[in-house]
Amino acid sequence: MVLFNANSGGGSGSSDRYVLLRSEPDRHFKNLLPEIIVSNQADVAAWDLPTASPMPVFLTADYLWEGMEGHYSSHFFEIRIYVYDPAADQYKLRHKYRTAHKYPGIDNWEEAPGILVRERNRIIEVLRAQ
């Protein structure tokens, strides 16, 4: 399998699309992910969590622009958790939520803030509850 992303646009407002390609016996590729398009401000990861999924859990954290926030403001992020469904042979959106507090936007990063790492406990809590 190959995780692939393509960027469209450029600078502010660009977006990334993700696909997880698996080679099939008929020599075609199958995308195991639903349509996943995030902004250039997103944090994306795949975590091995065998108690939640037989394949890695795919996660995104993308900013939410609210109210009078400026481009360089901190933002709340929407966390999306995708889990592989063996019966459908496809990843499905298992849960999404808005972070409880704001994180800096990409323009203010000296290094990536690791939003998903900081949200790890809540993500695992959500997966255990389902």
Which labels suit this protein?
130 residues, mainly beta, four-stranded antiparallel beta sheet, 8 strands
Could you give a short description of this structure?
The chain has 130 residues and is mostly beta strands.
Query: Structural class, judged by helices and strands?
Result: mainly beta
Shape, please? globular
The total of beta strands comes to 8
Between the first and last Cα atoms, what is the distance in angstroms? 27 Å
Structure write-up:
The protein is mainly β and 130 residues long. Helix content is 11%, strand content 42%. It has helices at 115-118, 120-129; strands at 2-8, 15-23, 29-31, 36-39, 43-47, 57-64, 76-85, 90-98. The strands form 2 sheets. Strands 1, 2, 3 and 4 form a 4-stranded antiparallel beta sheet that branches. The chain has a 4-stranded antiparallel beta sheet with strand order 5-6-7-8, with helices on one face. β2 and β3 (29-31) form a beta hairpin. The model has no long low-confidence stretch (mean pLDDT 89).
